[in-house]
Amino acid sequence: ISICRDLPNIEVITFSVNGISDLEPLHQCQNLSELYLRKNNITSLDELFYLKTLPRLRVLWLAENPCCGPDPHRYRMTVLRNLPSLQKLDNQAVTEEELSQALVDGVEITAPPARRSVENGWSESTASSAAGSTTELLSCSLDETNKTQEELDMKPVSRDKYSSFSPQESDCSCKKRNNVLNAILLLMKELDAEGLEIIQQTVARRLQKKELQEE
């Protein structure tokens, strides 16, 4: 997710199911208001240190990460103590009572997580993250694609779209389509009206060409 260092004005990021373990690249995204990190490889709540500097962050989805731990209450209280401006956490609205309770039950994070030693430009945690990302992407499914679209209030993809593929072909196609779709949805948030119009025209031409080929 190092690309985020070059996107300081981005407002919505969805990186669900990507094997992510390090949130440091996000700390410069000062306009970020919604962040979806469901089902990644974030092992420590200390990673929240990098989100505490984001003044506009209002929505965070962090569920299904190792850092959530066995105690849901302690996890939620710790997140809210460090990010009191959140209005929604894990698709659940934040209440004033929770914010008050978080001051008592939550753990304040005052330092970034410790990183393992770096050798040849790669740290052990980075290598682990890359391996985790590969594992997660291999297990990707149509359900995950639809989950991402649900986060962005988009219409789910119909399973009928995949009916012409064999199980193996469908799985491979789904993984590729999911990755491309997520990237496009993310980058579209950075486009102005002119850029969106160019995309619309390009898609229209592609669709027309596709229909002619099928005929």
Automatic annotation (TrEMBL):
PROSITE patterns: LRR. Residues 72-90 form the U2A'/phosphoprotein 32 family A C-terminal domain. Keywords: Leucine-rich repeat, Repeat. GO terms for cellular component: ciliary basal body; photoreceptor cell cilium. Pfam families: LRR_4. Residues 123-135 have a biased composition (Low complexity). One of its GO terms (biological process) is cytoskeleton organization. Gene3D superfamilies: Ribonuclease Inhibitor (3.80.10.10). InterPro entries: Leu-rich_rpt, Leu-rich_rpt_4, LRR_dom_sf, U2A'_phosphoprotein32A_C. Residues 116-135 are annotated as: Disordered. The keyword Nucleotide-binding does not apply. Found in a complex with CFAP410, NEK1 and SPATA7. Interacts with NEK1. Plays a role in cilia formation and/or maintenance. Plays a role in the regulation of cell morphology and cytoskeletal organization. Involved in DNA damage repair. This is Cilia- and flagella-associated protein 410.
